[in-house]
Design brief:
single chain; mainly alpha; 6 helices; globular; transmembrane; transmembrane helix
Length: 127
């Protein structure tokens, strides 16, 4: 059951970030995005290079999650992005709060599922 749930979470998270990243490129080149964007979120990206870096990371990590390669690395890169999305939708824009909560739940579950890959970051080693 946990393996099936990890597959579902990984594919959903990968698909969401791949679509959000591609949608962000539409905003960068000033085309109409295929998914509505939050005006509050876009106001935070005063400089285009921040949006380009974040959306590039979202696309790369979305693809990594979908093809099941370097999943712990993709989760580590996406963790601050997910936290930022969650906090933005709690404090500024409540329109996609349900999606933000779903992202946090899937991210936490996948971090727990791959916890053996992250435990080495927290262990104390002698010099």
């Amino acid at each position: 059951m946990s393996k099936v749930l990890s597959y579902i979470s990984r594919y959903l998270l990968g698909f969401i970030f791949l679509c959000a990243g591609i949608n962000g490129y539409f905003v960068i080149v000033e085309l109409d995005p295929f998914i509505a964007t939050s005006p509050e979120a876009m106001a935070l990206f005063e400089f285009d290079y921040l949006l380009i870096v974040e959306k590039s990371l979202e696309v790369i990590c979305g693809v990594l999650l979908l093809i099941n390669r370097f999943v712990p690395l993709a989760l580590a890169i996406l963790s601050p992005i997910v936290a930022n999305i969650f906090l933005l939708h709690i404090f500024l824009d409540h329109s996609l709060l349900l999606l933000a909560v779903a992202l946090v739940i899937m991210q936490i579950y996948l971090l727990f599922y791959y916890r053996k890959n992250f435990i080495y970051l927290l262990e104390k080693r002698p010099f």
